Amino acid sequence: MKFPLSWLREYVDLPAANAHEVAEKLTAAGLKLESIESVGDDIKNVVVGEVLSIEELAGFKKPIRYCSVEVGEAAPRWLICGATNFAVGDRVAVALPGAVLPGGFEVGSRKTYGHVSDGMICSARELGIGEDHSGILILPADTHLGADVVELLGLRDDVIELEVTPDRGYALSIRGVAREVATAFGVPWRDPADIEPPAFDDEAHPASIADPTACDRFVLRSVSGFDPSAETPMWMQVRLARAGMRPVSLAVDVTNYLMLELGQPLHAFDRSRLTGPIVVRRAEPGERLETLDHVVRELYPEDILITDSSGAISMAGTMGGLATEISGESTELVIEAAHFSATGTARMSRRHNLVSEASRRFERGVDPELPLYASWRAVQMLTAFGGGTAEAGVTHAFVDVEPATIVIPADHPDRVAGVAYGRDTVVRRLEQVGCAVVAQGAASGQAGAEAVPADVLEGPARPDPAELLVVTPPSWRPDLTDPNDLAEEVIRLEGYERLPSVLPAAPAGAGLTEVQRLRRRVGRALAAAGYVETLAYPFIGARDLDGLQLSADDARRRTLRLANPLSEDEPLMRTTLLPGLFKTLVRNVGRGFGDVALFESGLVYRPEPGAPAKAPVLGVERRPSQEELDGIAAALPRQPLRVAVVLAGEFDRSGWWGQGRPAGWSDAVEAARMVVRESGLEPVVRADRHEPWHPGRCAALYVGEALVGHAGELHPRVVEAFGLPPRTCAMELELSVLEAALPGAVQAVPVSSYPVATQDVALVVPAGVPVAQVEAALREGAGELLESIRLFDVYTGAQVGEGNKSLAYTLRFRAADRTLTVEETTAARDAAVAQATTSTGAHLRTA
């Protein structure tokens, strides 16, 4: 909402406060300031002139006029002008040599089209009061010659722009802002809607409401003998332009002006184009309407329409129809003012992607008492400026709506804010908002607190009936529906700065849980290993799943589709972290970073088979039942926490120290091992085939019999589909599985003061035997004396025979209570080899 400060001062007796002070008060009252703009200060040396003569210059591609203009000086000025909408005798705005126009544009004398132009005749856009550049701005004939145009038109002003939230619809008007400013400064104000329309028994035009859920107030008034050529007063054009609206014609400008001033959208119909009575109803199947923007719209059954015998003539509260548009020949007008359903207008506006100034106000809630007063003010202005006659009669169709009341303990704002305001302050502030406040006993003649909602009581105590207030919110505040809304009004008007800053008491506890510690340890471990954490949107598309080469029956293809996705290319909730990491990797490589190691942890969304397609939508008026909560839980997908990495380029960088090492599948497997070890568990690694990994370079990681995830090199088709660098590697683990298998608090093992005994052993095994299986057999056979085992060499060649491989391990033995003898370590080593021979067919390498 943009408005000039001068317009606000018309209704508020402001002290000598500037725009910034006014904006500070509005911000303190809870309204968000968007901007403050000083306009007109840079316009200089523009005066009123009268056109004395016009000479048409020939020989040019466009009309060029050489004009003599009297500006109140000793001699007329001669000016070149390309506009043709003015004549001899017209009063115009003239920028004299040395003048400055908005934007710092300087005007001087110059020779053009073979003549010297001693200044410039200005259009509305050149003066910064609109976008009209089609012709010269024509001033009223009685305008004083030589007068300063800036002072004459009130061009010097401060324009304040507020960002109005959905619950503050009243602030989309000068009336609403004036009330807030007057309260903030503690000064009187004048309500522009405080008028008394004359009473009429006759109808202006027959009208009725067919659907009370769509409209509860509909008012029509008529004007006859209107002059369609009448000009909008210049002060009104300036105010409209300052508020960001384009002046169009007198009839349209009056409705727009009153919408900005009062907050009540109005619409003017050409009565000669109306056929039969007007009816407000919902759309019927197959109906269409060509709106003022020349778009033919297919209407929906829920749309709210204004209709006559010919069908739809307007989309209620959003945009009028072209068939009944005011034209340059319209002399008979019907002015419509109504109160339409806020929800219905909002939904219709979004269905048709049609947002107008009227719909912005209706969807936030318009004062239902305004239509009678706003329509009468419109008639008064049209007759005053357009020479028409107000016809005797008014159509007022309405549906009785009982005003809502709220029962609130007088100390409820005190308990919400933690500040002792007192009963008198609460009553005074609520009355300033416009509420009617009485004690409950005075309102009902009964004592008791039965009408007080349970959520405003604190503990078992019930308030004294004498301290209960019955509050009737004003018609312009539909957002005030419960005691907490009223408490907020008291708190904001008293000042948010009065609220004390009290730190909450830290509850006793044991710090982070084991699960929280694990998540932090995993992130720190990966970062320490050289991986950079990223954060991607949790959305994917069907193309991503195809790129992963997933089979048709893969569980990761069972996804949730968003009702309103940010992008049509990614309408699904992710079932794997990999696509987001792949896209981040491609973006980095495309920007010159070829050696990349990334990781991400986050939730994935895995719908359960047979789950309801849609969760129930519950209200907020009561606590959901257990059955309703179970229904929501059944519709929700499983949301396990996962961690994934992706690697490309060099893992060990090249430099002056020598050649680096490219990232490989073993690095991805080691990253997976690292994550599992952070949980205090030892992973079991097995070869596997699982998309999107290469079938020969894919490892599955288990903890016990539970599958944790996969790691390895990506399939070449996946690399090609996502545009990844060759031999890109990745891993993805499910942290939720590790969290469920956590062994509990880690028990510190006493450090032995006795020396370690080392034994090396080289085993020959078939090439297809997994290293993890050999290692597990050695651990089992070595017994409790084994402290650690490390694979330090893998060899294949003629010395071990075709189809075999040699695995060399270092075994470290240590006892907690003694120094081990050679015989003990040899026996433990032999037992380990024997177990490996039995389990894997291994034998000692002899050469």
From TrEMBL:
Cofactor binding description: Binds 2 magnesium ions per tetramer.
FDX-ACB domain residues: 752-845
Annotated residues for binding of Mg(2+): 479, 485, 488-489
Catalytically driven reaction(s): tRNA(Phe) + L-phenylalanine + ATP = L-phenylalanyl-tRNA(Phe) + AMP + diphosphate + H(+)
Main location: cytoplasm
Cofactor names: Mg(2+)
A Pfam family reported for this protein in Swiss-Prot or TrEMBL: tRNA_synthFbeta
Keywords: Aminoacyl-tRNA synthetase, ATP-binding, Cytoplasm, Ligase, Magnesium, Metal-binding, Nucleotide-binding, Protein biosynthesis, RNA-binding, tRNA-binding
Localisation: Cytoplasm
Gene Ontology MF, one: phenylalanine-tRNA ligase activity
B5 domain ranges (all copies): 401-501
Highest taxon of source: Bacteria
Domain TRNA-binding residues, every copy: 40-150
Stated family: Belongs to the phenylalanyl-tRNA synthetase beta subunit family. Type 1 subfamily.
Name of the protein in its database record: Phenylalanine--tRNA ligase beta subunit
Classification of source organism: Bacteria, Bacillati, Actinomycetota, Actinomycetes, Streptosporangiales
Chain's gene name: pheT
